[in-house]
Amino acid sequence: MSKEEKKVNRRDFLFTASYTVGAVGVGAVIWPMIDQMNPDKAQQALATTEVDISSIEPGKSITVLWRGKPVFLKRRTPAEIAEARAVKMDDLPDPQKDEDRVKEGKDEWLVMLGVCTHLGCVPLKDKGDFNGWFCPCHGSHYDVSGRIRKGPAPTNMEIPKFEFVDSNTIKIG
Amino acid sequence: MSEHEYVPKSKVAKWFNDRLPLLTLGAHLTDYPTPKNLNYWWTFGGILTFCLITQIVTGIVLAMHYVAHADLAFASVEHIMRDVNYGWLIRYIHSNGASMFFLAVYIHIFRSLFYGSYKSPREVIWIIGLMIYLLMMAAAFMGYVLPWGQMSFWGATVITNLFSAIPLVGDSITTWLWGAYSVDNPTLNRFFSLHYLIPFLILGLVVLHIWALHVPGNNNPVGIDIKKPSKDTVPFHPYITIKDAFALLVFMIIFAGFVFFTPNVLGHSDNYIPANPLVTPAHIVPEWYLLPFYAILRSVPDKLGGVILMFSAIFILFVLPWLDTSKVRSAVFRPIYRQFFWILVIDVLMLGYVGAMPAEGIYLVLARVGTIYYFLHFIVVMPVVGYLEKTDPIPMSISEPVLTGGAEPSLARKVNDKV
After folding, report:
1. Between residues 80 and 139 of chain A, which touch chain B (CB distance below 8 Å)?
2. Higher model confidence: residue B58 or residue A153?
3. If pLDDT is split at 50, 70 and 90, which confidence band does B294 have?
4. Residue B146 lies in a domain
5. Fewer beta carbons below 10 Å: N end or C end of chain B?
6. Is residue B21 part of a domain?
7. Where residue B106 sits, what CATH number does that domain have?
8. Is B300 helix (H, G, I), strand (E, B) or coil?
9. A43 and chain B: CB distance < 8 Å anywhere?
10. Are residue B173 and residue B252 in the same domain, yes or no?
């Protein structure tokens, strides 16, 4: 046993130290090669979009591009809001109150990423079994609050970070 | 190669060959003893080599005219079609060439499945082949994105979003793949770079594939080990080269038929609409050669489950040599497995068909049945049938079925030892 222990000597220390330094060095070179594929500064610079919403009538919606993705801005009618709030939480695969998907006091404005949470297609408006959106790619149905009701999508359509700059302007991002 | 004591005739050739034995390699490839009973299903290796070279040559030429930028890519492809001399021909060869490549590779894979070419001692050939197949799918997918039409864009969106199904890090990985927050110009740029790279990786793997093949030598339709060289073998040249050349000629006629008469029949007309990130086409379908896997993906009502099952459908093939318990290679002597083989062929074709149809009603049912059978075939049928099946008697040598009682005692002993 003592003979075996003797084998751990200065040379082993040198080997271990060299491998460690070598691994750090390799990692330091590989990381930039990997990270260069992440969104660059030009992409990050597009991170906010301001939208004029003064011309949208109740019941209508517009689609704007934010970070290369469509964002749905829907001005909902009182009836649509009531419909969205009447849904029982038990009926939702991804339970979320409609109140939590809009800004307080601005309940008529639904601002959400128009991207199906399944595989990223753009759902079609006023279609599907729940009076909301329907994704043509793999058949996901969303309700008037953009919540998933039926189909392969796992979650509700995402609400991006946004704020009301003034009563007629929304800043997304 | 030790059995080839090749000595070049000229002094210069000998001088060179002593320093780099390329001529020895050439002699090995020429004399390579090949089973004399190889049928036309064995010609697809040569056909696939032709396909790869065709794709590389036409691809390099197309890259001289193509612009990998989101604002210019679509127009540059139309420029190739309308302005570049013979650009239409080169692009149609390249785009249809991808389909012909997959047609040939599927025949090649199913040939291997029927004659048990994946079995010992050829597992490494099989695995390298599957790696080539995976790279082919990656190259084809990225190539389809380059024209930046609607199908390019939304195909890229759907396929890259498969990675978002990975728990926790899925979204970061997807963003990393995109280089943006959606499929965008950085995505197109890197896809072009990788699309150019992958064929050369495939070329390297093809060299390893052939090298690994030349260690045990070719399998053959009766699937028995043969003595090499013997009366069961013929030299590769001219016997196999001429047979391969004839098959290639027939293949090229079909290829040319697509290129000149129906160049767009395998594509999708939506890809002649420039990419629009605001509108998804009503019916997204991948290229035909990916449809069976697409059907498997859609047959599962759960996102992560679908993605896992789809990738499993490919990766299960890697362990195939160890799932098949039969000692007999060729399905010619396996009456039960032979029937399951044809069920698998029909199953994959059916999955391909339903993959092109909307995922609803009867198509969804068929996709689920097809998916279940696909996995049952490899996980249950192969081990169980291989174990229980009573196989037909195997010939002593390739010559035996033709020359009555022609089995040599030396060969018989060998066959008794090991099939």
Report:
1. 118-124, 135-139
2. B58
3. very high
4. yes
5. N
6. no
7. 1.20.810.10
8. coil
9. yes
10. yes
> Same domain for B150 and B274?
yes
Q: Cα dist. A38→A113, B69, B192, B385 in Å?
A: 21, 18, 17, 49
Closest CA to B98 of B52, B41, B151: B52
B281, B298, B333 — which closes off a domain? Answer: B281
d(CA A94, CA A154) in angstroms, rounded, equals 7
Do B327 and B366 share a domain, yes or no?
yes
Rounded CA separation A160/B382 (Å): 50
- Indicate the residue among B238, B257, B281 that finishes a domain: B281
pLDDT tens profile A80-101: 888 888 888 888 888 888 888 8
The count of structural domains within chain B is 2
pLDDT for B4 equals 53
Tens-place pLDDT, residues A149-169: 888 888 999 998 888 888 888
* Residue B150 and residue B274 in contact, taking contact as beta carbons nearer than 8 Å: yes
Tell if the CB–CB gap between B179 and A40 is shorter than 8 Å. Answer: yes
Active site residue A118: no
B275 within some domain: yes
Q: Which domain covers residue B345, as residue numbers?
A: 285-388
For the residues B207-211, what does the mean pLDDT come to?
98
Question: Per the structure block, which two tokens stand in for B151?
Answer: 């199908």
The secondary structure of residue B270, as a DSSP letter, is G
Task: Identify the active-site residue in A138, A155, A165, A168.
Answer: A138
Nearest to B298 among A39, A63, A138 (CB): A138
Q: What is the pTM of this model?
A: 0.89
pLDDT at B403: 53
Reading the block at residue B364, the tokens are 């969804």
CA distance B171 to chain A (A): 11
pLDDT tens digit sequence for B30-52: 999 999 999 999 999 999 999 99
Same domain membership, residue B136 and residue B99: yes
Question: Both B215 and B339 in a single domain?
Answer: no
For a pLDDT cut of 70, what percent of chain B falls above it? 95
**Cβ–Cβ of B161/A120 closer than 8 Å?**
yes
**B chain contacts of residue A139, beta-carbon cutoff 8 Å:** 358-360
Residue A148's SS3 state is strand
CA distance A144 to A133: 7
Residue B227 in any domain: the answer is: yes
Across the range B67-71, mean pLDDT stands at: 96
Q: Do B223 and B308 share a structural domain?
A: no
Residue B406 reports pLDDT greater than 70: no
Please confirm whether the linkage preceding B238 is cis (ω < 30° from 0): yes
Q: Which of A119, A125, A133 to mutate to test the interface with B (most CBs of B within 10 A)?
A: A119
Query: Is the CB of residue A30 less than 8 Å away from at least one CB of chain B?
Result: no
Task: Dump pLDDT digits (tens) for B140-158.
Answer: 999 999 999 999 999 999 8
User: How far is CA B87 from each of CA A45, B72, B80, B251, B281, rounded to the nearest angstrom?
Assistant: 38, 17, 5, 23, 28
ipTM given for this complex: 0.80
Helical H segments across B327-404, by residue range: 335-355, 361-376, 382-388
Q: Are B91 and B103 found together in one domain?
A: yes
Q: How confident is the model at residue B120 (pLDDT cuts 50, 70, 90)?
A: very high
